[in-house]
UniProtKB/TrEMBL annotation:
Function: Reversible hydration of carbon dioxide.
Coiled coil: none
Catalytic activity: hydrogencarbonate + H(+) = CO2 + H2O
Cofactor(s) for this UniProt protein: Zn(2+)
Record-linked SMART domains: Carb_anhydrase
Transmembrane spans: none
Record-linked CDD domains: alpha_CA
Lineage: Eukaryota, Metazoa, Ecdysozoa, Arthropoda, Chelicerata
Keyword match Lyase: yes
EC number(s) on file: 4.2.1.1
Domain Alpha-carbonic anhydrase as annotated: residue spans: 1-263
UniProt-recorded name of the protein: Carbonic anhydrase
Gene Ontology molecular function, alphabetical: carbonate dehydratase activity; zinc ion binding
Length: 264
């Protein structure tokens, strides 16, 4: 079920005023220097453990997703910057496109990147579970990281990709053989765009404080190509094809929202 028909089942897809993704436009956003104003005493803090052992990757039928077990989630903490509460990592996943010119959900001055990672966090101060937080105001913060094409394989991504062929079909799950250092999936330069928005897949709830890093991380075209070998059908249905060639939503109207660019 693609984005074109989402409005039939989820009216917020077209009626909502805070939908995501959006185009992040340098000329219209408010620029804040990271060492000035509100960001001085209380800058954005992303605290993750060095290793995430025994993670499981799964095919959701819309892409791959890595759930974070709560005992590891408890060691993560995102706070400060645009956030008034403390948030905890619950899962991360990726969006990509049929070729390298498309794939990211957010665009920057109209430009797409080849893919975009989403690290989904829930508000542990106001809610008792991710399910409670997900539909609610200030329920979630999602950190977005663009993937751009470079000459070298991304080694952390490679740990996930070694298992991607084992979750080719919808519903399949597999333990990741190596410890993943999730912090290596973030860029060194932590300048970011932030704005109030929504989940980019149904039910499209407008509960997300978005934080999208302006600097991409790098991987190879071959690595992105492996994502496209996944299928949105189950193994039983596999004879009819069903490759997951793309899984991104196009930018939505900004309406009267303010996008802030924090430069660091
Ligand atoms: Zn996403």
């Amino acid at each position: 079920m693609g984005p074109q028909i989402w409005p039939q089942k989820f009216p917020i897809a077209s009626a909502g005023k805070k939908q995501s993704p959006i185009d992040l436009n340098a000329t219209t956003c408010v620029v804040v220097k990271g060492d000035q104003g509100v960001h001085v005493e209380n800058g954005l803090k992303v605290e993750y453990p060095k290793q995430f052992p025994e993670l499981t990757v799964q095919n959701t039928g819309y892409g791959w997703k890595v759930d974070i077990p709560d005992d590891i989630g408890r060691q993560t903490r995102v706070s400060g910057g645009p956030l008034s509460h403390v948030y905890r990592l619950t899962q991360f996943h990726c969006h990509w496109g049929k070729d390298l010119n498309v794939g990211s959900e957010h665009t920057v001055n109209g430009k797409s990147y080849a893919a975009e990672l989403h690290f989904v966090h829930w508000n542990t101060e106001l809610f008792s579970s991710p399910a409670d937080a997900m539909p609610s105001n200030n329920g979630l913060t999602v950190l977005g990281v663009f993937l751009d094409i470079g000459n070298e394989r991304n080694e952390e991504l490679e740990k996930l990709l070694q298992n991607i062929c084992l979750v080719k079909y919808k519903g399949e799950k597999c333990k990741i053989a190596h410890n993943v250092d999730v912090t290596k999936l973030f860029p060194d330069n932590k300048s970011y765009y932030t704005y109030p928005g929504s989940l980019t897949t149904p039910p499209l709830w407008e509960s997300v404080t978005w934080i999208v890093y302006s600097t991409p991380i790098l991987c190879t075209a071959d690595q992105i190509a492996k994502f496209r070998d996944m299928c949105y059908v189950t193994r039983d249905q596999s004879l009819i094809g069903g490759e997951l060639l793309e899984n991104y939503r196009l930018p939505q109207p900004i309406n009267d929202r303010t996008v802030t660019f924090v430069t660091l």
